[in-house]
Amino acid sequence: IRADYNITTTATDLGTPRLKTEHSITVRVSDVNGNASAFTQTSYTLFVRENNRPGPYISSVSATDRDSGSNAQVTYSLLPPQDPHLLLTSLVSIDADNGHLFALRSLDYEALQAFEFCALVSVLVLDTNDNSPFVCWTPTTTRLCPAAEPGYLVTKVVVVDSDLGQNAWLSFQLLKATEPKLFGMWVHNGEVYTARLLSERDPTKHRLLVLVKDNGEPPCSATATLHVLLVDGFSQPYLWLPEAAPAQAQADLLTAYLVVALASMSLLFLFSVLLFMAVRLCKRSRAASVPEGPFPGHLVDVSGSRTLSQSFQYKVCLSA
Q1: How far, in Å, CA of 300 to CA of 306, rounded?
Q2: C-beta of residue 317 within 8 angstroms of C-beta of residue 291
Q3: What gap in Å lies between CA 115 and CA 94, rounded to an integer?
Q4: Given this model, what pLDDT does residue 119 score?
Q5: Where are the transmembrane segments (predicted)?
Q6: Is pLDDT above 60 for 83?
Q7: Phi, psi angles (nearest 5°) of residue 252
Q8: Is residue 270 predicted with pLDDT exceeding 70?
Q9: Residues pairing with 90 in the sheet
Q10: In the chain, N or C: fewer CB atoms in 10 Å?
């Protein structure tokens, strides 16, 4: 509280006149490190916008010490975070002399929304609209019965946005259509519906261009193209759009080739089986035929050594 004190002492005698003498003493109090450093705030909340440039100053913390001299000098450092998976040293750094904090790398709100260190400083990452809507599914062609009532659900566009919060709020709009007043679209869910009854004058092929955008600032957008065919009942054969005709023709040609190849292999296999059976039957009929006699009375052995008996000769003929 006070570094030094001035004390004045007075010595007075009892004579007449009284005489006195004054003496001043200066007491200097030497400082010891008896006070701990303390932050000026119990907690700090820092807001950093995502996709920031690495390196710039983001904010600062401040601490004081009631001691004096070297005992009052404060230095700053980062303690290991409570979360062992958080690599704090790769996110922020602090100036040891003045407590200034710096971002070491670009932050991504979708990957890391907030982190704390020293159980005192909380860093909140602010989301920016850095992701465009992504059309993850649209039907190639949708068939529609001409008897559909107004408000009939024709198709739906499925879109996702990697941002969070209001930056991921999507709105849909029907930009262009072959018959603009025939179809409508719900703003928030991407559903396309019939706005009126269909008539015979309406074309059978319709092309719809859909725009989807998010609620960010500035907004990001994407487009999707839908094809709608008017068919008289869903049992009617599928009608292909001109854009899809070449691919369908190629698929049909490939199917025809496969059918012809399969039929040829089947016929060749059947012919082989019949031929094999005919050869087997022919051999069996020849084996079953018995040669007619009379046999010669004296046959000479192949080696010419002796004459075979008639009984052995008969058996040999049958075994053939």
Answers
A1: 6
A2: yes
A3: 15
A4: 64
A5: 256-279
A6: yes
A7: -65, -40
A8: yes
A9: none
A10: N
Check whether 239 has a pLDDT greater than 80.
Answer: no
Residue 320: its pLDDT value, please? Answer: 46
First to last CA, the chain: 136
List Cα–Cα distances, 133 to 98, 171, 172, 207, in angstroms.
43, 10, 11, 21
Token pair for residue 215?
Answer: 């609620």
CA atoms within 13 A on the CB side of 264: 6
Query: Measured between alpha carbons, how far is 57 from 37 in angstroms, rounded to an integer?
Result: 24
Q: Give the separation between CA 95 and CA 92, rounded to whole angstroms.
A: 10
Tell me the backbone φ, ψ of residue 47, rounded to 5 degrees: -110, 125
DSSP string, 121-133: EEEEEEP------
Q: Average pLDDT of the chain? A: 83
Measured CA to CA, the distance from residue 224 to residue 202 in angstroms comes to 23
Task: Please name the helix (run of DSSP H) or strand (run of DSSP E) that holds residue 9, with its range, or none.
Answer: strand 4-12
Can you read off the two tokens belonging to residue 205?
């092929």
18-45 pLDDT, tens per residue? 999 999 999 998 888 888 889 999 889 9
Whole-number pLDDT of residue 241: 45
d(CA 169, CA 161) in angstroms, rounded, equals: 8
pLDDT category at 292 given cuts 50, 70, 90 is low
Q: Which of 134, 175, 181 is nearest to 158 (CA)?
A: 134
Where in 61-145 does DSSP place strands (E)?
63-64, 92-94, 100-103, 114-117, 121-126, 134-137, 142-144
